[in-house]
Amino acid sequence: MATIKDIAKLAGVSISTASRALNDNPRISEATRTKVKQIAAELGYSPNYNAQTLTRGEANMVGLVFPVTDQSALANPFHIDLMRGAGVALEQRHYTMMVAIAETEERLLETVKSMVTQSKVHNFLLLYTKEKDPVTDYLRDAGMNFVVIGHPEKQGDRFVDNDNIQAGFLATQKLLDDHHCQHVAFVTSPHHWTFEVDRQLGCRQCLNERGLGGTEWVVEEDNAPQFFAQHPEIDGLVCADDILFLQIYRQLEALERQDQLAIICFNNSRLLGRLLPAIDRVDLRPRQLGIAAVELLFNRQADHQFISFAL
């Protein structure tokens, strides 16, 4: 059975260089990586990933950190599609996923700390961005390798994202041009996640360019009657994501407003598309986001990547 030593000898490089080449280390030239991989393939070399884990002192795992979510909250299909994309990319690198989910910031932080200290996970994907996030602060201070999905809290954090400001602008523009709306409300959650803030900013920019005012609807339990009592003129909704639309749709039905409004929302979840009527959607391509996040995680020379969206 061929060993890494055999490959290094035939390639005329050191054992450490051969190992780095097989693991696509960007510090090794493309020519050397190609040569080493070709020799490994010819010899039928199969790396021992468990041995590599022991040698490096870290697991062949990537931690996927979900945003803090109440136990009763619906699972977001956007995150599921992100996981699928990341899973495909990780499998190609012979890595597996370890998931961190919790109902409070304190518990989430403890889970991530345990992953680092006990499970030797040193690479992380954060499926959210948030101001003053203790998990991000911990990973940064501990020198862990991590990438966030979304616009980062601090300059220097590596990230993968859509251009959510532009997406919010174009989504609003579609309501105005295709549905001739004059009174648009942006629908957001009480969390005001970074992606919601950016999409709302784009919405406001579009409305300002047209000389139109805008309204914000912060969705809380059964507050649609109060909102529409205060804003009966609303004829269009830009909904921050599919889950929010699912939350408000039954309320709109009860008010018999669902057919009186032009609505556009984000994520283009196929699951929700089957549950809810046809509306305009912005496809954020979450699987591509997941794949790109893994590629960036293992490419230390790059600091960000934007993934295009589609209306």
Automatic annotation (TrEMBL):
SUPFAM superfamilies: lambda repressor-like DNA-binding domains, Periplasmic binding protein-like I. SMART domains: HTH_LACI. Keywords: DNA-binding, Transcription, Transcription regulation. It comes from Limosilactobacillus fermentum (Lactobacillus fermentum). The keyword Hydrolase does not apply. Pfam families: LacI, Peripla_BP_3. PANTHER family: HTH-TYPE TRANSCRIPTIONAL REGULATOR GALS, LACI-RELATED TRANSCRIPTIONAL REPRESSOR. This is LacI family transcriptional regulator. CDD domains: HTH_LacI. Residues 2-56 form the HTH lacI-type domain. One of its GO terms (molecular function) is DNA-binding transcription factor activity. It comes from the Bacteria.
